[in-house]
Specification:
Radius of gyration: 15 Å
Shape: globular
Largest sheet: 5 strands, antiparallel
Strand order of the largest sheet: 1-5-4-3-2
Structural class: alpha+beta
Distance between the termini: 22 Å
Strand content: 35-45%
Order of helices and strands: EHEEHEEHH
């Protein structure tokens, strides 16, 4: 799996704001936010209010640039959220999996950041 996702009963807008606040409290930079689609119908139901959040760790970027100055092609990490009939979901991409194309050293450097973001989602 290239992502971690968790279902919540709480309102997505409420969760989203708490998620962003906790990320900032942990020292992450939030460098962009988008809601690209309002409603998508799928065979297994409707996905609504799809949110994207672009998350970066300044100190980690400095380490990654030492390995490869073109690492910006993979930045930033992405948080996401959406509504479904069975609840609201928050998740994050797993750079330790998705970024393996940049090499094992890059993937390993991403693991602590990834674990911090997962821990934030789990505490919401």
């Amino acid at each position: 799996m290239f992502y971690y996702v968790r279902r919540f009963e709480e309102d997505l807008d409420f969760l989203w704001e708490r998620f962003k606040k906790k990320l900032e409290e942990e020292g992450f930079l939030l460098i962009g936010e988008r809601i690209p689609v309002a409603i998508v119908e799928r065979e297994d139901g409707i996905v609504a209010d799809y949110h994207l959040l672009f998350i970066c760790d300044r100190e980690l970027v400095a380490e990654l640039v030492k390995i490869d100055p073109n690492i910006g092609a993979l930045l930033p990490c992405t948080g996401f959220g959406y509504r479904r009939e069975d609840g609201n979901y928050l998740g994050v991409s797993l750079p330790s999996v998705a970024w393996k194309i940049a090499g094992e050293k890059v993937a390993e450097l991403m693991r602590p950041m990834e674990e911090r973001v997962i821990r934030i989602i789990e505490t919401l």
